[in-house]
TrEMBL record:
Cofactor: Mg(2+)
Organism listed in the record: Pseudonocardia cypriaca
Protein name: diacylglycerol kinase (ATP)
UniProt keyword annotations, A-Z: ATP-binding, Kinase, Lipid biosynthesis, Lipid metabolism, Membrane, Nucleotide-binding, Phospholipid biosynthesis, Phospholipid metabolism, Transferase, Transmembrane, Transmembrane helix
Taxonomic lineage from the root: Bacteria, Bacillati, Actinomycetota, Actinomycetes, Pseudonocardiales
Enzyme class: transferase
A GO MF term: ATP-dependent diacylglycerol kinase activity
Length: 349
């Protein structure tokens, strides 16, 4: 995901200290309930949109056991396909009367489910099963299947923002929940094989990142709300609803998933030493402190590049483009979160 370059730098001797940056996320088990008997037709219904390439054997059975144990009906199980990574399945779940839709997969599955649920009032639960699981980390969703399912069924409802993006003037508007952007970051997403991610996880981005680290900066024009155009030479521009990376690292310290604005960051190191300085700035969680790292907040953003550049939406490559038009859609998605999130959750508030 978007954290590739931080982990890439961890491979460099000069940044050996990164190996010590680990955040242990405590798992909190929701209390068991003793549900009152109910007729089958009166029991609430959960639907699970599952990416079969991400889940482990026995996941379906564990989710079903939690649902029935809490007095819910046996869940509706809907698997994603290459042609439909989750949006169609989530729409079907709404049509079937699901009270909550569980996105069981990685950040791509979560984004696809949110595409269908945004604006409907139907809650989305998270069962993390991908490499990054960045939204789940942001709100403190437990890693375990059973614990995450309990949160999805019994946790609190939180109305969060979503980002909406148009690419090169297209009429299609895509949803994102974590980050979207253009430049070097997206090139890494594009060049990292899926099979390698499955095999070694986040380390897959180290290889691609180190190979491309010496590339050139690109000319970019940024338009933020009604402000004057900003012209920069940069390596990557990212727009985030959440600023959380793996290992507890935070790329955008001010980002909140329900603050009604999007955060924008430009990373413009020109040398290896520049990347080191950028990484140290991220580790210290300072919004300022290096001339090659700039932050802004806005409700609408237009990014124009001098030539088509690789782009990504929540870590999924979407091809080359020259213009990204992005806006925030405030409080439009209901997300099921822990009723008492762990204190180290980046967006626990």
């Amino acid at each position: 995901m978007t954290e590739w370059w931080v982990f890439a730098l961890a491979a460099l001797p000069v940044l050996g200290l990164l190996a010590g940056v680990v955040v242990l996320r405590g798992r909190r088990r929701a209390p068991d309930h003793d549900p009152l008997p109910a007729e089958p037709e009166d029991r609430p219904l959960a639907a699970v949109v599952a990416n079969p390439t991400k889940i482990e054997p026995g996941t379906q059975q564990r989710i079903e056991a939690v649902c029935t144990g809490l007095g819910w009906a046996e869940p509706l199980w809907l698997e994603t396909t290459v042609e439909d990574p989750g949006t169609g399945q989530a729409k079907l779940a709404i049509d079937k009367g699901a009270d909550v839709v569980l996105a069981c997969g990685g950040d791509g599955t979560v984004r696809s489910v949110a595409e269908a649920l945004a604006g409907t009032g139907v809650a989305m639960g998270l069962v993390p099963a991908g490499t990054g699981n960045l939204l789940a980390r942001t709100v403190g969703t437990p890693d375990g299947v059973a614990d995450a399912t309990r949160v999805a069924l019994t946790g609190d409802d939180r109305a969060i923002d979503v980002g909406r993006i148009r690419i090169d003037g297209s009429q299609e508007e895509r949803v994102f929940l974590v980050m979207a952007g253009t430049g070097f970051d997206a090139a890494i997403m594009e060049s990292t094989p899926e099979a390698l991610k499955v095999k070694v996880g986040p380390l897959a981005y180290v290889i691609s990142g180190l190979r491309a680290m010496r590339g050139r900066r690109i000319r970019v024009t940024l338009s933020l709300d009604d402000g004057p155009p900003l012209r920069r030479r940069t390596r990557t521009v990212l727009v985030g609803n959440s600023g959380t990376l793996l290992g507890g690292l935070v790329l955008m310290p001010r980002a909140r998933i329900d603050d009604g604005v999007l955060d924008v960051v430009s990373l413009a190191p020109g040398t290896l030493a520049g990347w080191v300085a950028v990484a140290l700035r991220v580790i210290t969680k300072r919004p300022r402190g290096h001339e090659r790292v700039e932050h802004w907040q806005a409700r609408s953003i237009v990014i124009r590049t001098e030539a088509p550049q690789p782009c990504q939406v929540d870590g999924d490559p979407v091809g080359d483009a020259q213009e990204l038009s992005i806006r925030v859609d405030p409080s439009t998605l209901v997300l099921r979160v822990p009723d008492v999130p762990p204190p180290d959750a980046p967006d626990a508030g």
